[in-house]
Amino acid sequence: MEKLTSRERFALALNHKEPDRVPIDLGSIASTIRTVEAYDRLKNYMGLALDKKIRHFADEHIVPDEEIIRALNVDTLYMRMNVSKTWERIRLDPHTVLDEWGVPWYKAPGSFYTFPSSYPMKTAEMEEINKFPWPDPDEPSRFEGLREKAKRLFEGTDYALVADGTTGVGVFDMAWHLRGMENIFLDMLVHPDFAEALCQRLTDYYVAVYRNYLQAVGEFIQMVIYYEDLSGQDGPLISPKLYQKFIKPGHRRLFKVIKNYTEAKLCVHTCGSVYALLDDYVELGVDVLNPVQTSARDMDPQRLKQKYGASLSFHGGIDTQRFLPRATPDQVREEVRRMIGILGPGGGYLFTSCHSIQPDVSPEKIVALFSAAVEHGRYPLPQTGP
C-alpha cells in the first residue's frame, strides 16, 4: 500500500481496516509527556523545538511541539476547549488552587499531581444541588475561535484531529470531586435520590458543554475523547449494577448528543480494570477504548482483542506503571513489537503509551518507543506470536 496521510491512516485503522502502518498518538491528557523538566530532556536529546516555550495543561501534561510530533511520526493533533474567561484563578496558598467548581486542588511539594483537599458539597441534601454555583456550560469564551482553528488545521494539515474532552473529567469524576470519593459511594447506597439527582445535574452540564464544543469543531475532527475514571487497578470502583443505575443513563444521553454533532469516533478513557463494563460501553456505542492499562486485572490485550476487537478499537497498551521506567531501550522496542502484534491485526489500534509518560522515563526510551512503532507497525504485520 502506498503511504497514506495521517488522517487517512487514522480513519482506516479506527474503521477496523489495515492502513499502511499503525497510527501513532501523542498529546492527550492520557498519552503525553509529564512535567516540563522531562519534556526539556526530550527536546535536548532530540535537538528539536529548543527555542519554543513549553506549553502544558492539567498538572504539566505537555502539549508537544509540532517539530517533535513530526520527528516521532505522530498522526494526531489535539483540539482543546478554552478555559472560561469568567473563571478567576484563585491561589489559596503556595500549594493549593481553587478550580472553577470551587474544589481546592493541593499539590504537595515534590508531587507530580494535585488532589482535592476538601469538597464543596458538604451534605447529601437536595439543597446542596439547588444552591450550588454551577459553572455556565454556555459561556461563549469556552468556544471562542475553536471553529476557525479547527477549520484551519483540517484544511492546512493532514493530521487526524482529536477533540480532547472538556476538563479531563466526566460525570462520576465530578460527582466525587464535589462530594468526596467515600461520600459519593455512600450516597449511592444510603442517599440514592441525591446521588441520582447529582448525576443527572452533572449530565445536564456535560451535555450542554459537548453540544457547544462539537457545534464548533465537530465537522472537522476524527475522534473525541470523553474521560471517566470508573476503575482502579483491580476492578471497577463501583459495581456494574451501580454504574448502570447512576452513571450509565447519563452516558447514554451524553454519548447520543456527541454522535448527533459529529461523525468522529467516540473514545472513552477509563483507567484501570474496566473489563467488567465493556459490554455496557459497546451497547452505548463507544468506538475506542483508552488507555488499555495492561497492568490492571483482566486487561490482557490478547483477551481484549479476541472478545471486543470487532466492536472496539484500542488506544494505548504500553505500560507506564512498571514497564517503561524499568525497561531498557531494547526491551521497549520488543514490547512495542509484541503489543502491535496483538492489537494491530485487522486494524483497530491507535498506538501510544497507556498513560502519560512519567519523568522517570529517559528520552532514549521515549524515542525507542515511537521509532519501534514505525518499524514494527507496517502492514502487513509479521506473523509473530505474543
Quick structural gist:
The chain is 41% helix and 14% strand.
How would you portray this structure in words?
The chain is an alpha/beta fold and about 375 residues long. The chain has one domain: TIM Barrel. Helix content is about 40%, strand content about 15%. It contains 14 helices and 15 strands. It has helices at about 5-15, 35-45, 65-70, 125-130, 145-155, 170-180, 180-190, 190-215, 240-260, 280-285, 300-310, 325, 330-345, 365-375; strands at about 55, 60-65, 75-80, 90-95, 95-100, 105, 115, 160-165, 225, 230, 235, 265-270, 290, 315-320, 350-355. A 7-stranded parallel β-sheet has the order 3-8-9-12-13-14-15. β13, α11 (about 300-310) and β14 (about 315-320) form a beta-alpha-beta unit. α7 (about 180-190) packs across α8 (about 190-215).
Features:
386 residues, alpha/beta, TIM Barrel, seven-stranded parallel beta sheet, 14 helices, globular
Percent in strands: 5-15%
- What is the CATH architecture term? Alpha-Beta Barrel
Q: How does the helix and strand content classify structurally?
A: alpha/beta
Low-confidence stretches: none
Q: Give the number of helices.
A: 14
CATH-derived topology = TIM Barrel
Number of strands: 15
* The CATH top-level class label: Alpha Beta
Q: Roughly how many Å apart are the termini? A: 25 Å
- Radius of gyration (CA) equals 20 Å
- Form type: globular
Task: Estimate the helix proportion, in percent.
Answer: 40-55%
Outline the biggest β-sheet. Answer: 7 strands, parallel
Mean pLDDT comes to: 95
Looking across the biggest beta sheet, what order are the strands in?
Answer: 3-8-9-12-13-14-15
Quickly count the domains: 1
N-to-C series of helices and strands = HHEEHEEEEEHHEHHHEEEHEHEHEHHEH
